[in-house]
Specification:
Elements: H1 5-9, H2 16-22, H3 26-31, E1 64-66, H4 73-85, E2 88-92, H5 98-112, H6 116-119, E3 132-136, E4 150-156, H7 159-165, H8 171-195, H9 203-210, E5 212-220, E6 232-235, E7 241-246, E8 252-255, E9 262-264, E10 272-276, H10 278-283, E11 293-295, E12 303-311, E13 317-318, H11 322-325, E14 336-337, H12 338-346
Parallel strand pairs: 1-2
Antiparallel strand pairs: 2-10, 3-4, 4-5, 5-12, 6-11, 7-10, 7-12, 8-9, 8-11, 13-14
Helix pairs in contact: 4-8, 5-8
């Protein structure tokens, strides 16, 4: 029997976390009941909520880079400059058709529109593989306050595995989005390596930079009291690069490098948001910056976003690339097994950029 709204409001008498996490209803299950108050499990500490006094106007947001002429040296310099000074940028005129974006956004809504029973097949307890995982919040077992988000995480191994194990509601669209971004990812990585005087030539180097990929379908339901919670807490990604597709709702905020100011990342039709991950910060010995970012909850609309995380392979060892240190530059980071770094990240709640300290010398 579904709980009543009054029971949910008085969540001392009903286990919200069990309903959302263990039974697989997710935050969407709460939102679909039409709740008017926020369950206490989602009320974030004041310091973790967006302080509007520290948010600047959209006009001061991250760079937007036009990729219509890849061969122009100025484009490569703009990419590297953005990676050094901002850690985030948007790209336009990248050659990926708009219908690819619309298809994956529609597929995200379609998957999260399935019944809880159907979606539960992909939860940690029921999924046929660790490479396919339905989740909610970030790390519920480690969080003092939950985040207002559900997600489906798909680790890419092969088209064959995807055909067998990824949900049919979104499989083809997710694979298409990944394929269509391949060339853009490779060109971005080439530009970034050129800025470090590093050549991407052999298989080992390619593996280190982009040996594995994970695509997430993120769903942020309409929230009854968005000012009291977050969609995603403060963090930086563990990837080398993250390629993010936003819908037109908005809600992503980036911390400006070197200060406590937050910048909105306004949705731009046809654009992709690119950000540097911890792995590339480590590989570049701190030259390129992974930056804290967060997502606010929305009180008016359901929102979706689709990031592709481009990573080293789990068994790769990350540390400053040798060519970066050849000028005599001192290494800032030790060598770390990438899977150990990722395990450390997912073993705790979001905590800004504290994860990267795991690799500092």
């Amino acid at each position: 029997m579904a709980p009543s709204l009054s029971t949910i409001s008085n969540s001392n008498t009903w286990d919200v976390k069990h309903f959302v996490v263990n039974e697989g209803h997710g935050v969407k299950g709460l939102a679909d009941m039409g709740i008017q108050t926020l369950p206490k499990q989602y009320i974030q500490p004041v310091e973790e909520r967006i302080d509007t006094s520290k948010v600047v106007a959209e006009e001061q947001s991250i760079p937007v880079i036009d990729l219509s002429n890849w061969n122009d040296p100025k484009v490569g310099k703009m990419i590297c400059n953005a990676a050094e000074k901002w850690g985030f940028f948007q790209i336009v005129n990248h050659g990926i058709p708009m219908e690819v974006f619309e298809d994956i956004k529609d597929a995200t809504h379609k998957f999260f529109g399935l019944t809880a029973e159907e979606k539960r097949k992909y939860s940690k307890e029921h999924s046929r593989t660790n490479n396919v995982r339905l989740g909610t919040s970030f790390t519920p077992q480690a969080e003092k306050a939950l985040e207002w988000k559900d997600y489906l995480s798909l680790f890419y191994v092969s088209d064959e595995e995807a055909a067998a194990l990824w949900p049919s509601a979104c499989r083809d669209e997710a694979l298409q989005f990944m394929r269509k971004t391949e060339l853009v990812i490779k060109r971005l990585m080439e530009s970034l390596m050129k800025g470090l005087n590093v050549k991407v030539v052999d298989e080992d180097r390619e593996s280190l930079l982009m040996g594995s990929k994970r695509i997430n379908l993120n769903y942020y339901p309409k929230c009854p009291k968005p000012e009291l919670t977050v969609g995603v807490g403060r963090h930086s990604d563990v990837s080398t690069l993250t390629i993010l597709l936003q819908d037109n709702i908005g809600g992503l905020y980036v911390r400006k490098l070197g200060c406590d100011t937050w910048l909105p990342v306004p949705p731009i039709s046809g654009a992709l948001v690119i950000n540097i991950g911890d792995a590339l910060q480590i590989l570049s010995n701190g030259r390129y910056k992974s930056i804290e970012h967060r997502v606010i909850a929305n009180g008016s609309n359901n929102r979706v976003s689709v990031p592709i995380f481009v990573n080293p392979k789990p068994n790769d060892v990350i540390g400053p690339i040798q060519e970066v240190l050849e000028s005599g530059e001192k290494a800032m980071y030790k060598k770390v097994l990438y899977s150990d770094y990722v395990k450390h990240f997912f073993g705790k709640a979001h905590d800004g950029k504290d994860t990267v300290d795991f690799a500092k010398i």
